[in-house]
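Lay summary. Proteins are chains of building blocks that fold into shapes, and those shapes determine what they do. In this project we predict the shape from the chain. Here is one chain we studied, written as its sequence of building blocks.
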Amino acid sequence: MSEEIITTYCYYHPDVETSLRCNHCEKLICPKDAVLTDTGYRCKECVRNQQKKFETAEWYDYLVIFAVTGVLSFLGSLLVYVIPGFFRFFTIFLSPAIGGGIAEIAHRSVNRRRSNRLFQLAALAALLGSLPLLLLNILGGFDLWGLIFQGYYTFSVTSAVAYRLRGIRI
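And here is the predicted shape, written in a compact code that computers can read:
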């Protein structure tokens, strides 16, 4: 007796052969439709449905996180702006830590509610909060080292906030 080989095709792309299944709904999925999660591969539809359960932000959380993150980012940039000469070098080490602290405070300010848009808004607020002193450095009394360290602060704080608060990405 010979074994018959059954060819299986992707649920979403019927012309693509596959043997991979979503570990939630058991649909056959091709690599284009597979999303790697902590528990294995899932189809994009199951990930979206699961993600909806985790988006718990209220409408006012957007205002709160924007204000908190923007103000804290500005205060951090003020710290970098007033650090004298050689000590500005420590901005390289302080900025990512400041960004992580801002992200933690911002997340607690909204009672740890979640939303991808909420976290994107926090990153935007971190960027906008750090820009005034960067622009002041450019427009008033151009200081090259001050500009470099202020620019580094802006980049690293925005990156740290975005990284620390990001959610599931599809």
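What the prediction tells us: The beta strands are 34-37, 40-43.
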